[in-house]
Amino acid sequence: MLNGEVVGLVATVTTMWAVFEATHMMIQGFVVRNDCHNKGIGKKLLQHTEDYAKSIGVYGIGLCSGHQRSPAHIFYENNGYNKGTQYFMKNFTS
Predict the structure, then answer these.
(1) What are phi and psi of 55, to 5 degrees?
(2) Cβ atoms < 10 Å from Cβ of 93
(3) pTM summary value
(4) What total number of domains does the chain contain?
(5) Which helix (H) or strand (E) holds 1?
(6) How many helical (H) and strand (E) elements, i.e. helices and strands, does the chain have?
(7) 51 lies in a domain?
(8) CA–CA separation, 27 vs 72, rounded Å?
(9) Which pLDDT belongs to residue 21?
(10) What's the CATH code of the domain at 74?
(11) How far is the C-alpha of 54 from the C-alpha of 36, rounded, in Å?
């Protein structure tokens, strides 16, 4: 919150990661209002999420980000996230 207004959010799902037989967290949604970018809000949200994940024994955190979102990718990389696999999707509705 900034001046009593919600300006960002992070939504996560925690599951069992079969590959490593460990608990894994996925960030399903991560948003900071456009006029609040570059004020440390995203970094605080991410840090809070990481602190919470560690406190419940999560092995790691992953997220998907569209290939066109270059500034977001730089943000994630600057916060210690590594590029991993590519995400593929098939739509069934137009």
Answers:
(1) -65, -25
(2) 3
(3) 0.85
(4) 1
(5) none
(6) 2, 3
(7) yes
(8) 13
(9) 82
(10) 3.40.630.30
(11) 27
